[in-house]
Amino acid sequence: MSAVIDDGRASTPSAAEVHRSAPMVRAVLTIGVLQFLSMCLLFGRTKIVALALGPETVGAMSVVDKLTALVSQTLSLSLPFAALRFLPAALRESPAARNVLYRQMLSVSLALIVPATAVCVGISVFKPAFWGADLLPYRLSVIVAFCSLPVVGLVPLLTNAYAGGLDHDRSMWFTIAQSTTLFLAAVAAAAGLGLIGYYGTYAAIGGVLVLVAARHLAWSEPGQAHPPLSLRDRFRLPPAIWRFAAALLALTFAAPYGSLYVQYTSLHLYGAAASGILQAAVGISLTVRTLLGTAHALFLTPQVNRQGDPAARMAWANEFQRVTALLFVLTLPPLLLFADVAVRILYSGKFVGASAFVALFVAAEVVTLLSGTYQALIIASDRMLFHVLQNLAAQALLIGIVTVALPRVGLVGAGLAALAAPLFLYATTLIFLRRAYNVRVSREAAWMALLASTILAVCGAIGARYTGLAPALLGGKLLACVATWTVAFLLMPVDDRARLVDGLTRVWSLILTSTTRRRAAR
Fold first, then answer.
1. Nearest to residue 57, comparing CAs of 193, 190, 192, 195?
2. Which site from 78, 173, 462, 521 is most exposed, i.e. has the minimal number of CB atoms within 10 Å?
3. Residue 4 in 3-state DSSP?
């Protein structure tokens, strides 16, 4: 592991830097395992909705979800992100300081989201065309969906508040509880209540979950002082957080608007069924974000904000990037080679047309995560103006490509747009870090990222070109998957190869230990 510092030469890793990779791998794997449990619940939710409601309703549902996300994220003032950015520093001061800051963030969020819920419900009742003519057939569902706005808005804050207090396990268990809520909402929809029942169940059960977590976070340090706050003090966030929120305000609107624009344009041009097919491709790609991306928010961001100078942060980010790329090497081949099978499993055979462009959306998620590792350094260094302008430019690129490509090449155009934006972010992030701080990606991290990208391109092309359930075809893909893993293992750096072997050995040892204990218990 190395990072280029002021003189442009690779720094020599210290013993501490070498030994810290092991706990990093364990932390990422722990988060990944818990996230896998959450992902299984989300898979169940998606499968139930797809089978019970079909592509048309899934397409409409995806637009409604992105509409509520647009409102909630805009009103969030980036406080969920601020929780990762500022709560670790407050905790270093004292648990009481963390407690006060969290309660202030929660108060401001409630003051914004509760009135907004009433306004959005009112608009949906009296002026439903405001949200778009294509959503008029789903008017009642939109009304009930906006009733769940407090849950949609507060879940990210509470998740990140746990992580910002360096309590990653509780953050993940809260995520699992949230996924359970979504699963139960899907069961209600499949029981005959439809989209209205889905959003109503989510609002009711999710509301209870949010209340319990919000109170737990406020009193999560037994024996510690919990200073009383006056009504005025509850809304007196530190100036640094207000500046942070103001800097990101445009981005909190632009990012969810871009997603909504893609989904709504597909609904408008090609209908609800095509929108559902598009959502299936997006849904497969979200497995990458769900399983591997959580560690970025819950582990990477708090940690880089605890590091010192840019060179130290870059060295830490390079190590994290190598671990992330290694996980990509393990997970991408089967997901991409068997994309059509994944669509059938996660959704149904009615959605299998999405397999033709699943690889584009998976690539977008992979590049987003690779880029996000180093974007975290820009934020940690408080270079917010560049970060905002950079991301606004990426959203403009996304919208521009969608506007031109979607009517001309169909849903593939949405995939091309989704991939172009993170590629732009990745390139501009690395250029900025090199020019501003004279730091760059280590040779090993760059090689692992290149290896993951090559696997993505090759396996994605095979999976898109060859679809079907014929035994010979499935066997050929299985051989291609094994060959990909073998070649990747031989090509990765020696340290990463040893890390992989050690990780697999640990997993196998845990499986054997667990099996032995179960047999002994009998």
1. 195
2. 521
3. strand
The pLDDT of residue 15 is above 50: no
Mean pLDDT of 295-317: 69
Q: What angle do CA 371, 369, 423 make, to 5 degrees?
A: 45
Specify the amino acid at residue 8: G
The torsion angles phi and psi of 167, rounded to 5 degrees, stand at -110, 70
CB 418 within 8 A of CB 398: yes
- Sign of the C-alpha dihedral, residues 507, 513, 516, 521? negative
Predicted confidence at residue 24, as pLDDT, reads: 52
End-to-end CA distance of the chain: 47
What is the Cα–Cα distance from 397 to 435, expressed in whole angstroms? 23
Of residues 184 and 18, more confidence is placed in 184
| Number of Cβ atoms within 10 Å of the Cβ of 208 | 11
Q: Which residues contact 111 (CB under 8 A, 6 or more apart)?
A: 235
Backbone angles phi, psi at 10, to 5 degrees: -70, 130
The span from the CA of 252 to the CA of 395, in Å, is 11
DSSP string, 369-385: HHHHHHHHHHHHTT-HH
Number of alpha helices (DSSP H) and beta strands (DSSP E) in the chain: 20, 0
Distance CA 251, CA 262 (A): 17
pLDDT at 25: 53
pLDDT > 70 in the chain, percent = 87
For the chain, the average pLDDT equals: 85
- How far is 279 from 286, CA to CA, in rounded Å? 10
Distance CA 198, CA 191 (A): 10
What's the confidence (pLDDT) of residue 17? 43
Beta carbons within 10 angstroms of residue 461's beta carbon:
12
| C-alpha distance from residue 19 to each of 13, 318, 324, 453 (Å) | 10, 15, 17, 28
Q: Strands, DSSP E only, in 37-174?
A: none
Res 414: pLDDT: 93
This prediction has a pTM of 0.76
CA distance 110 to 185: 24
Closest CA to 485 of 450, 452, 444, 447: 452
Residue 478 corresponds to which amino acid? L
Mean pLDDT of 409-422: 93
pLDDT digits (tens, 9 = 90+) for 80-123: 888 888 888 787 777 888 888 888 999 999 999 999 999 999 99
Q: Is the pLDDT of residue 429 over 90?
A: yes
Residue pair 250/73 in contact (Cβ under 8 Å)? The answer is no
